[in-house]
Design brief:
This protein is an alpha/beta fold. It has eleven helices and 14 strands. The protein folds into two domains: 293 residues, Rossmann fold, CATH 3.40.50.1820; 81 residues, no CATH class. Helices cover 31% and strands 20% of the residues. It has a six-stranded parallel beta sheet with strand order 4-3-5-6-7-8, with helices on both faces. Strands 12-11-13-14 form a four-stranded antiparallel beta sheet, with helices on both faces. The protein has a two-stranded antiparallel ribbon with strand order 1-2. Helix 6 links the parallel strand 6 and strand 7. The protein starts with a helix and ends in a 25-residue tail after the last strand.
Amino acid sequence: MRRMVRFWALLAGLLPAVHLAYASGPVSIPSLDGKLQIPGYWFEVEGKEPRPAIIGLHGCGGGLDSKGNFAERFFRYAGYFNAERIHFLPLDSFTPRGQKSLCETPNKLRTIHEADRREDVFAAVAWLLKQPSVDPSRIVVMGWSHGAQTVLSTVDATDAYVQAQKVRPRAAVAFYPGCLVNNKMWNYEVHTPLLIMIGELDDWTLAHECVTLQQRLQKNKANATVELEVYPGSYHGFDGTGPVKQMVGLGNTKSGTAMVGGNPAAREASHARMFEFLSAQLGQPLLLTHAQRFKGHHYVVPPASGFAAADDLAAVPLSDAGKARYAHFRSLPSPKAFAVTEKGGWYFNAGEPEAMATTFQQCARAKSTCWLYAVDDQVVWQPEVAARAGAAGLRRVGAAAAGQ
């Protein structure tokens, strides 16, 4: 219970900037049997007409980071989805069941299984059906690793529990699932269009098992919509932003180890493939091109203020240490944003379309008010406080045209 209180308190601390950027905040979803309250984070887009919604399922490491906050991955994906006018609802299936992680636990000793998490998915579906902003005919389930295996369980057309559900997801996306379990099921079939994406070098959830699964499903049912992408030179977690490293102490690999980490080329390719799939299955044209989504800002960049040249370190209203960090910021790739706090501190992010929103989220976590000093290679800082670019002024690219 203490952990749950701390969890919600930490999330509440994020609300000022996150709400202004793209989120409504934490929600509690009752399980279908009424025994659990499943934590979720509702990234809702505004608009007059009901929009599609995606349910997000974390991997075996859980939905929270080391500090007890909702994982950064979900905020990053929320930015992508919300820019396309799609709601996002990631779930935390482990905290209400008293677990932090399953990665170190052998499969036979695990107390949380895909079937449990599948029930969470349908509880989330029931919750979404009550939200006026959601189009009930366009709900998607998406998962990573153990969450992706849950996706495969959720779309199992032969399962009695799934068959009993009145509303099922319209489409499903699975990032690097363990397909071996489903290959062992002689009668496994899917009722929902499914996209599986996995790394060629994945030594945790093997790519060849997913290749076998796709071939079998399409052989058994000629019109089965089961799409598969295998990304060369990529390991488990290829869509992440961290470097490739070896994880040890794992409970469900023969060696107890696996290589995990991002591959920039595969990450971008998989995101592009994912949006093409979603657009086709949801009947919704994309608002952004892939270049806009991955190379440019997701928010309208404030105009240059003329306060100073971008390379004028002396003009930066910070201490020498702050000026040094700004000089470092100048060397980083765009999209990027640098902010100055009311107390003379600074925060910055680079190399991501959500850089401005992410920077303001950092300010909110530190309970600081901050304003943008520079975006990419131009200074936007204004001497007058009222004229400065703060979190409240963030506006998504294309929001006006989309009716936001």
